[in-house]
Amino acid sequence: MNEFINNILMHVSEEPAEDLPAHHHSFHHGAVIDRCKGIEFDAVAVNEEGVPYFFKGDHLFKGFHGEAELSNETFAELDDHHHLGHVDAAFRMHSEDSPEHHDHQFFFLDTKVFSYYKHKLEPDYPKDISEMFPGIPDHLDGAVECPKPDCPSDTVIFFKGDDIYHFDIKTKKVDEKEFKGMPNCTAAFRYMEHYYCLHGHQFSKFDPITGDVHGRYPKEIRDYFMRCSHFGDKKTEEHLEREKCSRVHLDAITQEDDGDLYAFRGHHFISVSGDKFHSDTIESAFKELHSEVDAVFSYQEHLYMIKDNQVFVYKVGEPHTHLDGYPKPLKEELGIEGPVDAAFVCADKHIAHVIKGKTIYDVDLKASPRVSVNEGLLTHFKQIDAAMCGPKGLTVVIGSHFYQFESPLQMIASKAIPEKHNVAQELFGCDH
Question: What residues bind heme, as annotated (predicted)?
Answer without folding.
Answer: 278
